[in-house]
Task: structure prediction
Amino acid sequence: MILSLIIIICLLNLFLVINIKNISKFINLYDFPDNKLKTHKKKISLIGGTIVMLNIFFLLFIDFAFQIKFFDFFQSTTEIFSFLFVLFLFFILGFYDDKYKIKPYVKFFLSILISICYVFTNKNIIVDSFSISIYEYRIFLEVFSALFTVFCIIVLINSLNFYDGINGQLLIFFLIMFSYLLFKTNRFEFYSLIIIIILFCLFLNLNNQMFLGDNGVYVMSTILITSIIYEHNVYKNFIYADEIFFLLLLPGIDLIRLTVVRLMNGKNPFYGDRNHIHHLMIKRYSLLITNIFLVFLSILPILLYNNFHLNFYAIFSIFLIIYIFLIKNL
Result:
């Protein structure tokens, strides 16, 4: 059954790839160059989220019609619809922002409201406790569980939104994350289909036919944070929160650096600039070399964690030294 589903999804996405121009014209959502933050040569379609949502709703139809195992990732029908509802809300928020440019603080506030909605409609998304390797006792969040979960969702979405900036960069990062989850867990159906969708989006992105846009970043980030929390809460595949921390370390560190630098320079941290790590690198290196560097930085912490079994402080220190050295020399 899974092989048949993979073939069907590949055919669906092949159809989307072939008809990308017509779909883009119908959606009529483009990113136009401004020779400031946006330096691409022509208008590019911003339908990354649309493509992912079409795949998700197609899989929903197939799941309910033929009882496939894709949505068995969730524990109940209520959880499925909670996930889809929140996914759709984030998609609409991103789509509207891509189209009309919502003020950053309004977008931030709406993101919090959607995250709160997720917490109140799905108890399995709430992180109520976790363990870290440098502390012998489990940390119970109790009354702060919902607040902490909302914080995690908002930080992940914003850090990945900041991290998106050059062709291939964020989609390759998503590919790394979901590939790691695929090999770490036994939920082959869910992650393999997500990876196929990412690969088709990556093909379009690298060929300058599509950007993810905020709508795509929000949708993929929601799927990722849901996957990570479920693997931690429900399936117990993350013994220590360290592993999650190291998986997401690169975009997290870059978010912190950008926020601090902007505040020190008297700038609004929500407004964009060209000081992201990918912008600094692309000035000196080709797109290929830049993405190779970013892949290395993305996998380095989790590689040290799993293969060399270094302690938390050693891994974090090694990564931070390499990151600072790289930034200082760009």
Summary: The longest strand covers residues 30-31.
